[in-house]
Amino acid sequence: MRALPRSLAVVLLVSLAVAAVRADDGSAAARREMRQVVRLDLKTAEQLEAVRGLGLELMSEADGVGPVEYLVTPPAFAALEALGIRYTVLVPDFDALVEAERRYIDAAGSPGLRDPAWFTAYKSLDQINAKLDQMVADRPDLAGIVQAGTSIENRPIRGLRISGPGAGKPAVLYNGTQHAREWIAPMVCMWIADRLVYGYDTDPQLQSLLDRVEFYVFPVINPDGYVYSWTTNRNWRKNRRDNPSTSCDGVDLNRNWATGWGGGGSSGNVCDDTYRGTAPFSEPETQGLRDFFISRPQIVATIDFHSYSQLILSPWGYTNQLPPDNDVFLELDAGMHDAILAVHGVSYDYGPIYSTIYQASGGSVDWCYGARGLWAFTIELRPASAAGGGFSLPAAEIIPTCEENFAAVLYLSEWSASPVKITFPSGLPTRLTPNQTQSFTVSIRAVGAVLDPASPQLWTRLAGTSSWAAYPLTPQSGNLWTAALPPTPCGRTREYYVSAATTTGVTGAAPGDAPASWYDVTAAPLVRLLYENMDVNPGWTAQPLWAWGTPTGGGGQYGNPDPTSGYTGTKVYGYNLSGDYENNLAEKHLTTPALNFTGISGATLSFYRWLGVEQPLYDHAYVRYSTNGTTWTNLWTNTAQIADNAWVRMELPLPPATDNQPTVYLRWTMGTTDSSWQFCGWNIDDVEVWAADPNGCPPTPGDLNCDGAVNFDDIDPFVLALSGPEGYAAEYPNCDWLRADCNGDDAVDFDDIDAFVALIGS
């Protein structure tokens, strides 16, 4: 798929030390002797159409206004330069790169099919099929060949089913190489299969997973195109459809799926690399994989591996609207990001396809989610680095790329193992108001199963007690339910967890190992340090572009436009209230007055945001704090491209550095460095800073050891308290002797014994 233009440019410009060039730089003659990969920064639709007219070979996933990569042949350079569009050379000699890659493959020879060195060089289709067969021969108890139809040239689309003993399991499917030239994708898929088959007996995690989950792995969905990329054209992308009445062959398989077919980011021109075909599923390769998904309803999740962009992508690709399950997709995106990062320290950006990189219609991910309800993702693997460019990821990076993406596969597979998924879309309570019921929202899904509507329950108890009490959840719309924590005495901690079950009796819980572990929250009065609902101008320090007022709903070139009012009321503080921000601007700040945190610890900032911002390599949104108004520390920044289409509540605990400080400032910041893409920026509403009041709870009668509970552990300190305040204070210097006044007569004496016994009994 598309190499993310800006991140690719950074990687290759640093590694190859190539500068932007134009026709008058004296190197035109040299360039006309070789094919080069270049990045154009297209500013207008007219420029885009002019470039399309040159017939250049597209290297990005799709083209449009903005940065786009092309492979430019020597005869095309003069025409390109005549357009006057500035471009950057990414790969100075594409053919030399391909030749070096081929020499390396030839020198690597043919390691044994079980030899780890098999993964040190790219492998042909025949070599891939031979290793698939070897894995089945070695472990027929675990692995078997499966087929997802045949290609247009009648090659079988082969894969493996891998699973331990048992039936009725949820399944996951991992595939690669819809685009023929993306040679790292089948290597990642083969690594997945190899590790599962040969690690079953030695890795307890893999054994447990294979005993609970069924795996399907298809390394090469486009076998004809893959063979052609080895024998004839290393840069071939499409399948090998013979399009009638033209010399332009092939259909882009990842534009041939039904959901969103024919939309932006695909082409009706048979000569384009993104040619979508004559109709949805016109190609036998997409038909075969489609039918395989349909015939196995136990499949609940899938990843389609591509290169090169270093991205984790979720629906939608065909529209800028967010899917109904976007909160879960972002949770899974982030989980796979963290799993990958932990292996080699490589960060993959993540988010919906449309807003994270570009519009791409007719892709497999959108169909898998839209038509089948699967948790479907594309992972764009590493881009080429210092030793290469384009789709020729250096061989030295094959195994590291496989290792880090296997971690993502394990994460998604473990998540898919249990059918009951319980999440908290608005977060969990961080503080309880004493003696009041507190509600929160729970999302419950049964993946590949049916939820028993009578099963969702909240289990809760006061800390220090042993018995759990169950409370049924109240259904809302869709997958949402309401849980209500019962009233909690001031200063006491409430423990709780949530459970639900399928109609077949499979139970899930949150936390996953409940009741062995649980969530907890303490009831404490609230002290509010700041509250601005923005109905009136709070008069904060606002640099240009930040302003108080009503947003217009304008903009929306990428992501989503501004809102048309606040979360409550009509007013907000916004970064350009009239629409998309400009590019290439220095950081601009919105800053609160000094807040007094004297005597306060553990404060929390909460606010509602409407945010559109590009990837953090190019544009940033920050929340920062300072205790002196001069030195600022990041409290939050975007780690991915963000395009909210609704008000989102943020809750940010302030660090210990702010505890007991006489001056604390808070700041919202936007900074933009990109030269092409525009988003709506920040909109801020209902800003609040609060903390639990450390002196807000009166002493709890009967809690003589000050552990937050009244139980048998309080008997000895109660007896000590009856002897007088001095002896009690010596043993419990941080507790109040008057806690022994259990009958409320302002005295501690033998008249309190019956009341103390009653409190223990309650």
3D architecture notes:
The protein is of the alpha+beta class and 762 residues long. The strands form seven sheets. An eight-stranded mixed sheet has the order 6-7-9-8-10-13-11-12, with helices on both faces. Strands 23, 25, 26, 28, 33 and 35 form a six-stranded antiparallel sheet that branches. The longest helix has 20 residues, at 398-417. It contains 17 helices and 35 strands. The chain folds into five domains: 5-92, Alpha-Beta Plaits (2-Layer Sandwich), CATH 3.30.70; 98-146 and 181-302 and 309-392 and 402-417, Zn peptidases (Aminopeptidase, 3-Layer(aba) Sandwich); 421-523, Immunoglobulin-like; 529-692, Jelly Rolls, CATH 2.60.120; 712-761, no CATH class. Residues 1-31 have low confidence and may be disordered. It is globular, with a radius of gyration of 30 Å.
- Output the CATH topology of the largest domain: Aminopeptidase
Give the class-level CATH name of the largest domain: Alpha Beta
Query: Spans of 5+ residues with little confidence (pLDDT < 50)?
Result: 1-31
Derived from helix and strand composition plus strand pairing, the structural class reads alpha+beta
* CATH architecture tag of the largest domain: 3-Layer(aba) Sandwich
Number of H/I helices: 17
Count of domains: 5
Can you count the beta strands?
35
The overall pLDDT average reads 89
| Overall 3D shape | globular
Assign a percent range to the helix content: 10-25%
Our measurement of the CA-to-CA distance between the termini, rounded to an integer number of angstroms, reads 64 Å
Fraction of residues in β-strands: 25-35%
| Computed Rg | 30 Å
Instruction: Please name the fourth-level CATH homologous superfamily of the largest domain.
Output: Zn peptidases
Strand order of the largest sheet: 6-7-9-8-10-13-11-12
> Major β-sheet, in short?
8 strands, mixed
